[in-house]
Every structure is written in C-alpha cells, then in structure tokens.
C-alpha cells in the first residue's frame, strides 16, 4: 500500500494566528502589553495590544518603527517633546530615534516593524541603556 502525503503537509506554514486575549500581559514602559508573533523565527513584525495605565516613560528605539492605533480612551502622545491629542482611531507612526510616550489611560494596537526586540528599548535618563 502506498502512502501519499498531502501537498500541504510538506509546505511550511505561511501564516500565524493569535488569540490576543489569551496572551499573558507583560510590563512595558507604557503599561502592559500582550505581544503576538514574538518568536526568534519571526523578524518581520509583531502585534501588541497595550493597556496604558498612566503616563508612560519616554523612550525610543534605534531600529524599530512603531505604528500605534488608539482603540479606547483618550489622552496625548508626546513625540520628540511635542504633545498631540489622541482619541479612538488616531493612528501614529513613530520612526527610529523619535522619543515618545503616551499620556493618559488608553488601549492601543502597536505594530513594531521589524519585529519587537526588547534590546532596542532606550531611555535617555539611563545613559543610553535599555
């Protein structure tokens, strides 16, 4: 009897899925983040749902671009020392080197590109260390 393998069984998966509310939150400079697609094999992008509990700590990234989408709440985003009001459906692209922080209580989607790297989180008040 001949065993036939499915074409799909031989191909690597070209997709990933995550149930965001099942992911454990981790502390971050903004509050708590649930991070999907964070694996050593994935260098493309990650997706975070971030609960900003209070004013976050100013930080920047040397390599990452981050795209924020405000889902709930309102407040301000501080970008290189300048403050802008944000509310649900406000979108912000934060490029490498931009000092940034969220001000207020909000829930956001954050898409870091390339994939989030905790080693690329920098604070001026810590002498350029993460």
Lateral strand order in the biggest sheet: 1-2-3-9-4-7
Distance between the termini: 60 Å
Mean pLDDT: 91
| Shape field | globular
β-strand percent reads: 35-45%
Largest beta-sheet characterization: 6 strands, antiparallel
CATH class: Mainly Beta
How would you classify the helix and strand content by structural class? mainly beta
The topology string of helices and strands comes to HEEEEEEEEE
CATH level 4 superfamily: Jelly Rolls
Q: What Rg, in angstroms, do the CA atoms define?
A: 18 Å
Number of helices: 1
Summed up, the domain count is 1
CATH topology: Jelly Rolls
Walk me through what this model shows.
This protein has 130 residues and is mainly β. The protein has one domain: Jelly Rolls, CATH 2.60.120. The chain contains one helix and nine strands. The strands form two sheets. A six-stranded antiparallel sheet has the order 1-2-3-9-4-7, with no helix packed on it. The termini are far apart. The mean pLDDT is 91.
